[in-house]
Write a structure and sequence with these properties.
Elements lengths: L1 E3 L13 H6 L26 H14 L5 E6 L1 H12 L4 E7 L12 H6 L1 H5 L5 H16 L6 H8 L4 H12 L17 E5 L9 H4 L9 E5 L7 H4 L1 H13 L4
Parallel strand pairs: 1-2, 2-3, 3-4, 4-5
Length: 251
């Protein structure tokens, strides 16, 4: 099973899920995505392109001798997971996406969603790193709503160049002047989406509309009482939902 974390975290974001997955008999691979955690942090933008991220994940599991896999992704990692399932269905058995829906749904982004995504424009600014760091990372802490995971995330972002590397994914994939990315193919493997009304960054429609781009079994559930970082807020519930879906038969 491949676990893909999001911004601004690391593979440690899955620390509550990994023991349960291992106990169930899954082999778990949980890498730090480029620019985050303890991964490499190149200054160039090209390595952060979503297509390159997908290629790296395929290369990783191939080197580990994995022919097919379950993929679970959150936030940025969910976008990569959708890409893996859409472009390489022969390698993906099932897909679980937390908070982020099929990337094609972003083509019809609403004004309300643009307001929620204001930080993506901030991340494009040359001075974004300074703004996020000043006053003991006040803006960064506010952006994350002072989530309990913030201190650990800050420990990874504090070293020289680390914050820029973390922002580079947005700069490579979300620049407003960039031409629209090609539409992804529909997903042809069973897929499960988890969303919450407590997400400060994404509207539920982003996940709910994903059914339009899934040609196999699609399941979608709301998790209450959690933030965008649901696997940290209610780990037992999220882990149970993931395991239940992965254990389901049918197509």
């Amino acid at each position: 099973m491949l676990l893909l974390h999001g911004f601004p975290g690391s593979s440690s974001d899955w620390r509550h899920q990994i023991p349960a997955l291992l106990a169930t008999g899954y082999r778990v691979v949980a890498p730090d995505l480029l620019g985050l955690g303890r991964s490499a942090k190149p200054p160039e933008l090209e390595p952060y392109m979503a297509a390159r991220e997908i290629e790296r994940m395929l290369e990783l599991v191939t080197r580990l001798g994995v022919a097919t896999m379950m993929v679970v992704g959150h936030d940025r990692g969910a976008g990569v997971a959708w890409g893996l399932a859409a472009l390489h269905p022969e390698r993906v058995e099932k897909l679980v996406a937390l908070t982020v829906g099929h990337p094609n749904t972003a083509r019809d982004i609403s004004v309300e969603q643009r307001e929620k995504s204001w930080y993506m424009l901030l991340f494009q600014l040359d001075g974004a790193e300074t703004l996020l760091r000043q006053d003991d990372w006040r803006l960064f802490r506010d952006l994350l709503r002072h989530h309990p995971g913030t201190p650990e995330w800050l420990s990874h972002l504090a070293p020289e160049g680390a914050l820029s590397a973390a922002l580079n994914w947005y700069r490579a994939n979300r620049h407003p002047a960039a031409p629209p990315r090609p539409l992804l193919p529909d997903v042809t493997v069973p897929a499960f989406g988890l969303y919450t009304l407590g997400d400060h960054y994404l509207l539920p429609a982003y996940m709910l509309e994903s059914h339009r781009f899934v040609r196999r079994r699609w399941r979608c559930e709301r998790v209450d009482g959690v933030s965008h970082f649901m696997m940290l807020d209610r780990p037992a519930e999220v882990t149970r939902l993931i395991l239940d879906f992965l254990a389901e038969g049918g197509s």
